[in-house]
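I'll show a typical protein example:
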Amino acid sequence: MGRAGKALREVLTQYGISQNSLAVKMGLQRSAIYKWFHEERDPTAETVADIVEALKSLNEQAAQDFVYLYLGNMLKNQDLEQP
């Protein structure tokens, strides 16, 4: 599966955030978090944004690390031209 599950697993483990606390913050059942955590399913793009918001409220640095692990250096040091 995808990069989101790996990033989520690393961040939750590193910051000691439980799957249950993330599920509660997102208003989801823990089984949804479990499936992402164990890479059985990938969250949708919209859900990734919701994960970031939930992580922000639990631990700002965890949210930043999740985004970095998920997107990597994709946007860093690139000239983003606006149309």
User: Anything to note?
Assistant: The chain has one domain: 3-71. Residues 4 and 44 are 10 Å apart (CA to CA). The mean pLDDT is 89. The longest helix spans residues 45-58.
